[in-house]
Specification:
The complex is a heterodimer of chains A (83) and B (153). Helices cover 25% and strands 23% of the residues of chain A. Chain A has three helices and five strands, in the order βαβααβββ. The radius of gyration of chain A is 12 Å and the shape is globular. By secondary structure, chain B is an alpha+beta fold. A four-stranded mixed β-sheet of chain B has the order 1-4-6-2, with helices on both faces. A four-stranded antiparallel β-sheet of chain B has the order 5-3-7-8, with no helix packed on it. Chains A and B meet through loops of A and strand 3, helix 2, helix 3 and strand 7 of B. Chain B: Converts molybdopterin precursor Z into molybdopterin. This requires the incorporation of two sulfur atoms into precursor Z to generate a dithiolene group. The sulfur is provided by MoaD.
Chain lengths: 83, 153
């Protein structure tokens, strides 16, 4: 699965994107966040304030309980500050 | 009434007058045009520039979703949304929303709605470059913006 990071989430993880083969027991966004926290210290730091992070699945906003399903791309980012 | 939103996400500046003309050219049913321009303010001399990061693809798609909702909610004759990304010095334009309708109320409300949802739903993030040269910081989302978006539900 393609994983993309933006703004301070990107800075903390240290990369813009990565492709990961996920264990089969990861079915929701929340599962994925729990898994990413175990990848390394940078990921753990980025997801420390989990409630402050927003998620998009295939470029649509979703909540943490959303099923990953057949999504190809998941993105993690802080609350938006455009406009 | 037809309303096909024009959405652009770009690094370049925009020309508000030219964009307004595009919504009225060759038609006589437009009675009201409301345009909003968001600019980069310097916060009393403290801010040199904003760096706007965006999620290419989703930015256009999400603005399109918000614009389509506005077209369903108000009888608009046209709607234009242009959002810039990249480094924007204080004093320069960031965002343009123009809503056109036969009557003013729809145009005012649609432009207001667009801005409230752009702020909370469109994937853009602002980083402040300070005039003092001290470390750049990410702008925090405000509860005021969240509350502004909620009043439309």
């Amino acid at each position: 699965m393609q994983i993309r990071y933006f703004a301070w989430v990107r800075e903390k993880v240290g990369i813009e994107e990565e492709t990961l083969d996920l264990p089969g027991n990861i079915t929701t966004v929340a599962d994925l966040i729990a898994y990413l926290k175990t990848v390394d210290d940078n990921h753990a730091a980025a997801f420390e304030e989990e409630d402050a992070i927003r998620v998009a699945l295939d470029q649509m906003h979703v909540e943490a309980d959303a099923e990953l399903g057949a999504a190809r791309e998941v993105a993690f980012f802080p609350p938006m500050t455009g406009g | 009434m037809s309303c096909k939103p024009l959405i652009r996400v770009q690094a370049e500046d925009f020309d508000p007058a030219a964009e307004a003309d595009r919504l009225t050219a060759g038609r006589k049913d437009v009675g009201a045009l409301v345009s909003f321009i968001g600019l980069c303010r310097d916060d009393g001399g403290k801010l040199a520039a904003l760096e706007l990061e965006h999620y290419p693809g989703m930015a256009e798609t999400e603005i399109g979703r918000i614009a389509t909702q506005a077209c369903g909610r108000w009888p608009l004759t046209g709607l234009t949304v242009i959002h810039r990304f990249g480094k924007i010095p204080a004093g320069d334009n960031i965002v343009l929303v123009i809503a056109a309708s036969s009557h003013r109320r729809a145009a005012f409300e649609a432009a207001d709605f667009l801005m409230d949802f752009l702020k909370t739903r469109a994937p853009f993030w602002k980083k402040e470059h300070l005039a003092s040269g001290t470390a750049d910081t990410w702008v925090k989302a405000t509860e005021i913006d969240d509350a502004a978006a909620e009043r439309w539900s």
